[in-house]
Amino acid sequence: MNIAPQTLETLEFFKIREHLARYTAFSASRELALALLPSTQLPEVRQALALTSEARQLLDEFPDLSIGGIRDIRRAARHAERGGVLDGASLLEIAGTTMAARQLRTRLLKLNPELFPLVIERAALLPILPPLEDEILRAIGDDGNVLDSASAELGRLRREIRIAFARLQEKLQNMIGSATVGAALQEPLITVRNGRYVVPVKASHRKDVRGLVHDQSSSGATLYIEPMAVVELNNRWRELQAAEEEEVQRILAALAERVGLAAPLLVAAVEAIAELDLAFAKAKYATSLRCVAPEVVNWSPDVPLPPVADPQLVDPDRERAPLLLTEARHPLLEQSTVVPVTLWLGASFRLLLITGPNTGGKTVALKTTGLLALMAQAGLHIPAAAPSRLPVFHHIFADIGDEQSIEQSLSTFSSHMRTIIRVLGALEAAPLPEELWDADHWKLLSEERPPALVLFDELGAGTDPVEGAALARAIVERLLELGVLGVATTHYAELKAFAYNTDGVQNASVEFDLETLAPTYRLSIGLPGRSNALAIARRLGLDPVLVDRAHSTLDRSDAAVEDLLAGIHKEREATSLALLRAEELRVDAAKYRDRLEHEWQQFQQQREQETEAAHRELEEELREARGELKRLRDDFRSVSLSRQWLEEADQRLKDTAEQVKAVARQARPATVAPRTQEPRPLQPGDTVMVRSVGLKGEIVALDHEDATATVQVGGFRMTVDLRELTREKGQPETANSRRDYRPERTVSLPPPPDVSMTFDMRGWRAHEVSDRLDRYLNDAYLAGLSQVRLVHGKGTGALRQIVRDVLQTHPLVVNFAGGGRDGGDGVTVATLVDR
């Protein structure tokens, strides 16, 4: 669907296109600007606006960016494609265009694809042109003439032409200087007639100079004769010139043939660059008008609006209105003096009735709304402030101005009514009388009721006020039923009351200053305009008696309405001041809230940092205490045992354990948030399942550093990884159950273990031998074994050597030797000290 040309003309969209065309760089993009039309497809409108935004940002970042020396070469390319020959100037334009297109394509493709995806997409469409540029520049000079270097034949011919010309001139100069010919000449000079060099001879001396007469003067006194002595030289010079011209034409034809082969690519390149230049022109035009990119929304009269996101807003109705123009300015008016208009439609009301005095700005507000909608749908930014948004209208109807016609015997009222009938017929998709239907201007809408915008100026004017007001009311009611968005201006007081009492219709007015007797051009939505005729008459000096008499003749209801409107205006001014003061207080409160929140966050962060520092200090002390316990345990394993030493070690372990408890209690935070119950750690005395062997046992000791536990399984002990242990059912598992399960923390020697005499170490790594063999020897000693058999295998002998090095220095080993018959070199038998 397209917007009716009558609407484009009424809203002066054609002037917008002319202003836009001034910012284009060459004729192809100017043609696009002058042919620009609004689109009615939502994706197309959004993409066009996005391209304009990208072009605007691109020009902001790279002000020197331009399309270069591109020319509209489409006509020349198509002429060459049809077999025509191009002159040197046309070929130079083609070469310059191919060069500029190549440079522009290279530069645009280097842009950030995240910031300029649409510009890059169009730059990628620029065809890669054949090497015409070099061929043309090698053959054509800057002045458009074919160069001598264009071909060897042309170079030879031009050298011979210069030689022939020099000979011809030399011969003629000699003849002029001779006594015989010199005396017969009217003047001693050489001139050209019919492309041949001649001398001016006196008519009376015709017989003194033999030759061909090419011309004579108007008086007949002078004959221009080509002497017979130079005829052959002239012929030679002319023949060479003809040969040169033929060679030049051959070269131009060859170049034109190459251009003709590339004509489709050249035309495509020009059209693609024209689209880019149009986007740059839109960007420049938007910058000159201080425009913003409007938000384009997907709105339909049959789809409900979303709920208000923030009910605390001063005017939540504006937030969800599909049409919102904030501080909009008419683009064809002087921007420094125009008064901005803020207007919205489509939320709680869809039709806006603007009332107020003449020349007060009603029609400007009407035109601004329609023209900005057309601009947005044409991919142009609009002269307004953010936020501004618009639906994509499938139809925009505008009835503005007086279109009375004397020739057709149509009054103002008749003219307006014909337009209104067309509009309603198109909106209702109903057939119209043939005499009222204009297929070039109006098209029927589908039954899906796509979005439409209706703009009526002076609705119901030009006839009896009572009938005109009733008719205007009926038209507004019908527009409500059709679900369109619309703005209308009127002077009828009856429509003010109708708008006040009708859902979907809202009053608006243009303000008027009674002090200066001049309109302010500011639009107020929600208030109808007042009739200021009597007040103006009083201010201008009309006799107050006459003003009072006129007031007394007014209908009481009309007078009451005017008084009510005056009161509403005063209350609105007071409310506006109160809202302004409330907004100032809200802003101040928000600043204090933000500052307090920032200070609270800093306090929380500082407290967390101090708490973490204290925890790190306590953890360090805890690690030192645990290290002391490990050293004591190592001493316990490695020294020879005596009663006195055991008593001292027992006391030292008790003291260290108490120290660890004290440090652990200090490390707990003062306040702990509730946590889910977690299983308590394994402790000595717990019954566990050793998953690797599938046997149950009791934990005898824990080594937290190595993450291992010593488990008594039946008659023997084994050291296993803590990850292989699972607590048996019936054992205390949670922090809560730990209140009733408090195992003894004092250290005491375990009962003698049940240890095997054979200790198999085959497959061990070197770093595992020392610690694990030491523990086995301690356990064997405590179990009362006097001799143990260590199986390490033969292999390379490295493991055997490590085992014997440990036995050599171990305090519990008396001596050791090989296994002899019982294993040979793969076994070492060690004898332990007596208990």
From TrEMBL:
Residues 664-686, 725-754 are annotated as: Disordered. CDD domains: ABC_MutS2. It is an enzyme of class 3 (hydrolase). InterPro entries: DNA_mismatch_repair_MutS_C, DNA_mismatch_repair_MutS_core, DNA_mismatch_repair_MutS_sf, MSSS, MutS, MutS2, P-loop_NTPase, Smr_dom. Residues 725-745 have a biased composition (Basic and acidic residues). GO terms for biological process: mismatch repair; negative regulation of DNA recombination; rescue of stalled ribosome. PROSITE patterns: DNA_MISMATCH_REPAIR_2, SMR. Residues 759-833 form the Smr domain. The keyword rRNA-binding applies. One of its GO terms (molecular function) is ATP-dependent DNA damage sensor activity. ATP binds at G356, P357, N358, T359, G360, G361, K362, T363. Keywords: ATP-binding, DNA-binding, Endonuclease, Hydrolase, Nuclease, Nucleotide-binding, RNA-binding, rRNA-binding. It comes from the Bacteria. Its EC number is 3.1.-.-, 3.6.4.-. Acts as a ribosome collision sensor, splitting the ribosome into its 2 subunits. Detects stalled/collided 70S ribosomes which it binds and splits by an ATP-hydrolysis driven conformational change. Acts upstream of the ribosome quality control system (RQC), a ribosome-associated complex that mediates the extraction of incompletely synthesized nascent chains from stalled ribosomes and their subsequent degradation. Probably generates substrates for RQC. Endonuclease that is involved in the suppression of homologous recombination and thus may have a key role in the control of bacterial genetic diversity. Homodimer. Binds to stalled ribosomes, contacting rRNA. Belongs to the DNA mismatch repair MutS family. MutS2 subfamily. This is Endonuclease MutS2. It comes from Candidatus Chloroploca asiatica. The lineage of its organism: Bacteria, Bacillati, Chloroflexota, Chloroflexia, Chloroflexales. The gene is mutS2.
